[in-house]
Amino acid sequence: MIDTHSHIYSEEFDLDRRDVVSRAKKAGVEAIVLPNIDAESLPLMYATEAENDGYCFAAIGLHPTSVGENYKKELALMSNELSSRKFIAIGEVGMDLYWDKTYVRQQAEAFRVQIEWSLKYDLPLIIHVRDAFAETMEAMFPYRDKGLRGVFHSFAGTAEQAAEMFGLGDFYLGINGIVTFKNSGLASTLPHIDLKRLLIETDAPYLAPVPFRGKRNESSYVKLVAGQLGAIYRTSTAEIDRITTENARTLFRLP
Q: Which of 41, 74, 143, 225 qualifies as a FRET site for 180, CA 20 to 30 Å off?
């Protein structure tokens, strides 16, 4: 298995990060993708990647909820980082209007800048969408024929929304602990979506799957996501593991 979205560099893991990685390995997790949040999180992410060289892989991006008055300064810093070292993806980027709509214009502009980075550096996008589906589609539409690729992380939408996402380029859907929530609706949506379009993730420390819902999430719990997908698609966890791992290696060009 590959946890394609995990923030184990965050302070929630400061006391037991090595144990968290060890448990992930024991659970069968072969690699962990670390999406960035903002300039402040970069040193933490770099340190976690360095401590787990060849196992954790850093992405770079400005999260939509981190977009504020100084977003251009943050983007400039990240642009410099992009030109100086390798990253596995551009992310976590996108649009989020759940908490605040103050910076909706700035979010869209920051997102477009980072979409252009993905094209310039030939890196996949890790896209965050919350209460902003229409706005996200509008920002991405002008780039639909330019070779976009990536993952819409933490997918909890409809089959129709998935089809619209796939129409923008070579995209996958990131499935996490939400799939284990009874009210998520994913059990009825996912059978309409090809397994070859899915990745598995945790979004640790958030969105822990049942039976750990409400507690700190960690990368080892991605096996519970795989198990639930096996039940939905009426196949084995091993088959879910095989397909989603192949998908992740293809998208992120993992060794």
A: 41
- In this predicted structure, what is the pLDDT of residue 17? 98
Phi-psi region of 205 (alpha: psi -120 to 50; beta: other; left: phi over 0): alpha
Q: Answer yes or no: pTM beyond 0.70.
A: yes
Q: Which residue in the block uniquely carries the two structure tokens 């799957």?
A: 209
For each of the domains in the chain, give its residue range(s) and CATH number, in order of start.
2-252 (3.20.20.140)
Cβ contacts of 82 within 8 Å, gap of 6 or more: 60, 117, 121
Q: What tokens does 45 get?
A: 């992410």
**HEC sequence for the chain:** CEECCECCCCHHHCCCHHHHHHHHHHHCCCEEEECCCCHHHHHHHHHHHHHCCCCEEECECCCHHHCCCCHHHHHHHHHHHHCCCCCCCEEEEEEECCCCCCCHHHHHHHHHHHHHHHHHHCCCEEEEEECCHHHHHHHHHHHCCCCCEEEECCCCCCHHHHHHHHCCCEEEEEECHHHHCCCCCHHHHHHHCCHHHEEECCCECCCCCCCCCCCCCCHHHHHHHHHHHHHHHCCCHHHHHHHHHHHHHHHHCCC
Q: What is the mean pLDDT of each run of 10 residues along the chain (255 residues)?
A: 98 98 98 97 98 98 96 97 97 95 96 98 98 97 96 97 97 98 96 98 98 98 98 98 98 94
Q: Name the region of 169 (left: φ>0; alpha: ψ -120 to 50; beta: rest).
A: left
